[in-house]
Design a protein that fits this description.
49% helix; globular; single chain; disordered N terminus; 14 helices; Butyryl-CoA Dehydrogenase, subunit A, domain 2; four-stranded mixed beta sheet; Butyryl-Coa Dehydrogenase, subunit A, domain 1; four-stranded antiparallel beta sheet; 3 domains; alpha+beta; Butyryl-CoA Dehydrogenase, subunit A, domain 3
Length: 443
């Protein structure tokens, strides 16, 4: 049931107060980040603090119980959250994408149902990617029966890189029904759903990106979100940009955390290498130069993220009106790909340069400063930089649309022109042709 809308004159105060509450939660999350990393304690408490503060409803319209934040406000807050703990924005990445998709559906009963849930604290995780010899959808959805009022379906399959599902109340999954790709949602408590904490990456270790199994899970027709051909590119320009922005905003947050931790390490120290006696390290010109460099790298990452957010915000009215492509959307996607090349390299450089401020003592396990590099490296590995770099060059030199290579192969598969059995079955799906399963897929 839709909640009442707040009077318009209350919105600025409501938004200001809500953002202040969220920032207080961010500070609380930051206090426990090192210990969670050290003990690999899943961030269940931190997620609940955010939900209680209304974070799950950040983009949800006020009339559905949310805050109705803009894209600019949302990604600014995501970078602040990433500065506190970079696992948290990624945990909510599928959730925010799910809400974004519902916003595009407009004023429909289906959209209202899901937005009401998100606005009142429901969290949606993702189960999209699969492991196999080729990128594809092997999870199946079969008609199971039903009544005169509803159709029931049976969901079977195994998903990997199920980011956020360990913390979620719902799972958004993709399955194949013949030649169609079905996007659906199931409660995490549904019989036959198993969530396994087996993500073994050396970074972003607390994101809940493990395995999800579906064993004869019953799905009512009302939980089917969309049906598209498997030969169709799985994400359009808006969502590809949106997903990439989550990683970019998180990387920018890591850049800020690097500066914060460098300052916290240096300020109290009174020993400088090669200088006898007590010398405040913060006055050492070499250390000052390192910290200055770190601040510049962080500033650059922030500026690039802001530029991509502005491009996405400019394209939003066209996208929400129904456009899947167009100059504004392509410009936003281009900016996201360009920023990805630079932000990832700069934050990784900062994460390494950080150790120049303190020598061997900076490598103490108690500080876990290495988590910044490990987390940034893991985020930068989700979508291949070299693939995006090549696509950028092809686009700029030849005007080739992003994803054109994938679409050409998918079309061949759909028409039977490809001799591979899997392609003939219409199972090829992914972010790029020839790219192995990665943690970026449509939700």
């Amino acid at each position: 049931m839709t909640g009442p809308a707040h009077p318009s004159h209350d919105l600025p105060t409501t938004r200001h107060d809500a953002i202040a509450r969220l920032r207080a939660v961010f500070a609380r999350i930051a206090q426990g980040a090192v210990e969670r990393e050290h003990s690999r304690t899943l961030a269940r408490d931190a997620v609940q603090w955010l939900v209680d503060a209304g974070f799950a409803g950040l983009r949800v319209p006020v009339r559905h119980g949310g805050l109705g934040a803009s894209l600019t406000e949302t990604f600014a807050l995501l970078s602040e959250l990433a500065e506190a703990d970079s696992n948290l924005p990624q945990i909510f990445r599928a959730h925010f994408a799910f809400v974004e998709a519902r916003l595009r559906e407009g004023d429909t009963p289906q959209a209202a149902r899901w937005l009401d849930l998100a606005g009142h604290g429901a969290v949606f995780g993702a189960a999209m990617a699969e492991l196999g010899d080729s990128t594809g959808v092997r999870t199946t959805l079969r008609r199971e029966g039903g009544t005169a009022d509803t159709t029931l379906w049976r969901l079977d399959g195994v998903k990997y890189y199920s980011t956020g599902t360990l913390y979620a109340s719902w799972i958004v999954a993709v399955a194949a029904d013949g030649p169609h790709r079905i996007t659906l949602a199931v409660p995490t408590t549904a019989p036959g759903v198993e969530r396994i904490d087996d993500w073994d990456g050396f970074g972003q270790r607390l994101t809940g990106s493990g395995t999800t199994r579906f064993d004869a899970v019953v799905v009512p027709d009302e939980n089917i979100l969309s049906r598209t051909p498997l030969s169709q590119f799985p994400t359009e320009a808006y969502f590809t940009t949106y997903y990439q922005l989550f990683h970019l905003a998180t990387l920018a947050g890591i850049g800020r955390a690097i500066v914060r931790d460098a300052v916290a390490f240096v300020r109290p120290r009174t020993r400088t290498f090669g200088v006898p006696g007590q010398v405040a390290q913060r006055h050492d010109p070499l250390v000052q130069a390192v910290v200055g460099r770190l601040s510049a790298l962080s500033f650059s990452a922030d500026a690039l993220v802001e530029r991509v957010v502005a491009s996405l915000a400019a394209a939003y009215p066209q996208w929400v009106a129904g456009a899947d492509d167009g100059p504004e959307l392509q410009r936003a996607l281009t900016h996201a790909y360009q920023a990805q090349q630079v932000v990832a390299e700069q934050v990784l450089s900062a994460a390494t340069t950080l150790f120049e401020v303190g020598g061997a003592s900076a490598t103490s396990e108690a500080r876990r400063l290495d988590r910044h590099w490990r987390n940034a490296r893991t985020l930068a590995s989700h979508n291949p930089l070299i693939q995006r770099q090549r696509e950028l060059g092809d686009h700029i030199l030849n005007g080739t649309q992003f994803g054109a290579q994938w679409q050409a192969r998918a079309t061949q598969a759909a028409t039977g022109a490809d001799a591979q059995p899997e392609a003939q079955a219409g199972t090829q799906v992914g972010t790029q042709a020839g790219t192995p399963p990665r943690k970026e897929h449509a939700a």
